[in-house]
Specification:
Residues 68-106 form the PKD domain. This protein folds into 2 domains: 38-113, Immunoglobulin-like (Sandwich); 127-266, Jelly Rolls, CATH 2.60.120.260. Helix content is 9%, strand content 41%. It is built from 2 helices and 17 strands. The protein has helices at residues 2-21, 127-130; strands at 38-45, 53-61, 65-69, 75-76, 82-84, 89-98, 104-113, 133-137, 163-165, 172-183, 186-190, 200-208, 215-220, 231-235, 241-252, 258-260, 262-266. The strands form 5 sheets. A 5-stranded antiparallel sheet has the order 8-10-15-12-13, with no helix packed on it. A 4-stranded antiparallel sheet has the order 4-3-6-7, with no helix packed on it.
Length: 270
């Protein structure tokens, strides 16, 4: 028994000595940081007529991946992409480069995509006049649509007449079904002859291809008509030919009644 214990002791001591003599592995050295990417880019219109098309040219160093974000949900990984916007407007364009360690640099500009010939003081034809169709409202004048202040007065082309509704409660909807669909990009509203507190103040304009599914096109929350018989033009972006357009009046200037002289839906420019 004593001999067995002696043998175990000898092996244990040898194991400890071996472990003590074993060299430790050197600690891994941290990988040096790569140089940070450096980026820049230019943006230029590609055509003197097509103001929506742009050539983007990026320069980048110390990178592995690049990404363009054009501000309209479109992207590219090319170094010099061409891009065409659907509409005019202000777009946040960002060019980003990233190295293999995940470090990145970016440059961003606000690009003003604008038609040099666009005039916000002008509006194209009224489709209510040139195409025609049918107006319906959620609640009409007490005398009906053909009354002296009935709903049809709001689309008769005469600012001296008006649509008047008593008991306004913020749920008035005017819907116009065109005889044929048309791409609208503007609309107008004209204040009536008296009582500014009856004027519309907040509304939503929508379009629909089938009269069931509606798309928001434009809205106002705090509009003020400074004068009587004042026509205001509103422009919006759209490239769909809608057959139905509707105007939902949510708020007026505090009166219990509502009035408006004219409403039109228009081609964007003459």
């Amino acid at each position: 028994m004593k001999k067995a214990l002696h043998i175990i002791s000898v092996f244990t001591t040898a194991a400890l000595l071996f472990a003590g003599c074993k060299k430790d592995k050197p600690a891994p050295q941290p990988k040096p940081d790569e140089p940070l990417p450096v980026v820049n880019f230019t943006a230029a219109r590609t055509d003197s007529v097509d103001f929506l098309s742009y050539q983007f040219t990026g320069t980048a160093t110390n990178y592995k991946d690049i990404l363009w974000q054009f501000g309209d949900d479109s992207t590219s990984t090319a170094i010099a992409p061409k891009h065409r916007y659907a509409f005019d407007g202000l777009y946040h364009v960002t060019f980003t480069a990233r190295n293999s360690q995940g470090f990145s640099s970016a440059r961003e500009i606000i690009l003003n995509v604008a038609d040099p010939n666009f005039d916000r003081t002008k509006v194209g034809e009224s489709y209510f006049k040139t195409i025609g169709g049918t107006l319906t409202v959620s609640r009409d004048n007490g005398g009906g649509p053909n009354a002296g202040e009935g709903s049809l007065k709001v689309v008769d082309g005469d600012p001296n007449t008006k649509f008047f509704q008593s008991g306004f409660s913020g749920d008035l909807v005017l819907k116009y079904e065109l005889n044929t669909p048309a791409v609208a990009g503007a609309y107008t509203m004209t204040s009536a002859n008296d009582s500014p507190d009856r004027d519309p103040k907040g509304w939503i304009l929508q379009g629909s291809e089938d009269g069931i599914r509606w798309i928001n096109l434009h809205s106002k929350n705090n509009e003020v008509f400074a004068n009587r018989f004042q026509r205001i033009i509103y422009h919006f972006n759209n490239n769909v030919a809608y057959k139905f357009y509707r105007l939902s009046i949510k708020v007026n200037n505090g009166a219990r009644d509502f009035q408006m002289a004219e409403w039109t839906v228009n081609k964007k420019q003459p």
